[in-house]
Specification:
Chain A is built from 12 helices and 12 strands. Chain A is α+β, with helices and mostly antiparallel strands and about 400 residues long. In chain A, helix 8 packs parallel to helix 11. The two termini of chain A are about 30 Å apart. In chain A, about 40% of the residues are buried. Chain B is about 35% helix and about 30% strand. In chain B, strand 4 and strand 5 form a beta hairpin. In chain B, helix 3 runs parallel beside helix 5, helix 4 packs across helix 5 and helix 5 packs parallel to helix 6. Classes of the chains: A alpha+beta (about 400), B alpha/beta (about 220).
Amino acid sequence: MTKFLNILKIAFKNIFSNKLRSILTMLGLIIGVASVIILVGIGNGTQENVTSQVKSLGTDVLTLNIQDNDYALSYSDIDEMLEINNVEAIAPYKTVSATVKYQTTNSSRASIIATTDKYMSIMNYTISSGRLMSVIDLENNSKVCLLGSDIAEKLFELSNPVGQDIQINGDNYTVIGVITEVGSSMGNNVDDMIIIPYTTAKYLGSDTSINTAYIKVSNEDYIEQTTTLLENYITNKLGITTDYFTVSSQDSMIDTFTNVNNSLSILLGGIASISLIVGGIGVMNVMLVSVTERTKEIGIRKALGAKRRDILLQFLIEALVLCALGGLIGVVLGIGVGELLGKMGYSFSPSINITLIAFLSSVIIGIVFGIFPANKASKLNPIDALHAE
Amino acid sequence: MLIELKDIKKYYHLGDQTIKAIDDVSFTVEKGEFVSIIGPSGSGKSTLMNILGLLDVPDSGKYLLDGLEISKAKEKELATIRNKKIGFIFQNFNLLGKLTAVENIQVPLIYNNENNNQSKQRAIELMKKVDLEGRENHIPSQLSGGQQQRVAIARALANQPEIILADEPTGALDSKTSQDIMKLLTELNENGQTIILITHDMNVAKKAKRIVKISDGKLYE
């Protein structure tokens, strides 16, 4: 035990008496460990971010997308789909870009969502003032609109928008309500959008074909079952082949994203791991130099009764301490830089497992790349070593 | 008999030339003796020292140290015997530069599995024995040559070895310091310590009770 503590003490002494060299040696490992933690942490953060955004849409909602140019859904199709088991509500969905203006404000472009009265409840959106879209608005092709909270503030600043008219592509639309702040979701900032009745969209030069619809299922346990029923309905009744449409749940969207994100994380983690290995080679190089420099010390120690194992252990532990120290600095640096990036707006979520794995890899690299120089040191002939200068 | 060498041979081959560094040497040392081995450089005295100190193995012959047959010992056993039975004193002291005087003396004790406190205690006692009280925490570069050699002597004594092997112990010291070191070695011998001293200097060799000459790998009493 004393022997071991002594070896440890000597290892630290040597590392600290050669500070610059030790730091340069550790640099490869520090960068490797830190980049593994940062890259995987950002991957995780993005994943969590997307997952929570998707989840906020509700796990009982399906998204229908039709990519067939020859066929789009009609209202009657939607009514028929409502007959399918467990389908509680359907809202067609279309976005149009248009210029928006209120009185004297500069006109700006905004995304207009054309949909039905069901959309708000399917998406779990509420209004902070005014009223929701009604069936009558749809039937009358009324020029009314609901404003996202950001755009309402931009157009009206502090005054109440409800009941005022805004110009969308030059036409007057009456604001009937303002949507409670939602935040951005899947890259769309709902708070910047304007919702109008689906039937009114034709005034904005859009056709009435339906390519996208949100479907609320009565119970999330029936999601898969309902997906199959919808798919069957679309292929059998509407004659669209499965290649041209998708019915996806939020979970399946998360899965798709997770897959992409995981491959990306593995790729980035892999690149970072390579830098760990390169760092290990640096450690081996320096340890070999250290063995050469300390040949005389090895000779003296052998003359004083050090066994091969004692010398091997001494150099191995020195490499190990060097790598563990580098790993530790890398962990601190990685988490520090990651948190800093987090403050700058990137999503960073450090993984305890990856942090541990990165640190342990650095220790293992210490053993793997330390054993060769240590073995070389232990095999030195004491006479040659004693006569070295 | 503490040391018995019988028909020891050690040859080196340089190209097609054979150098007989040790040629059929037989030699004994009794417990408590102070022997000088004197010879010019190239006489084979360093090789003899290495063999006596178990740093090198002879090509043939028999070496008994304190009744142990050395030629049959394995590397690991040789390390243990070096640690417990032999104390080395070198011409250039060979202290470890980054360790303090006390830590240097502790090295052989720690390889002998003594714990830190015990070995430190013993090292401090040895510092007193070689008249270096107060210099315990000096590193070698803060000590004079004579002081460094005293630390080296203390280190050689650490595990109470059977033999002290001193290889030109005064070779790097001035004459006054040399005398002090020789006086210290003589005192140790008077207290029963067996010492083998290797030198090329007759004045140094004369301090020993017995002088053996070495020339071209052969010993002459």
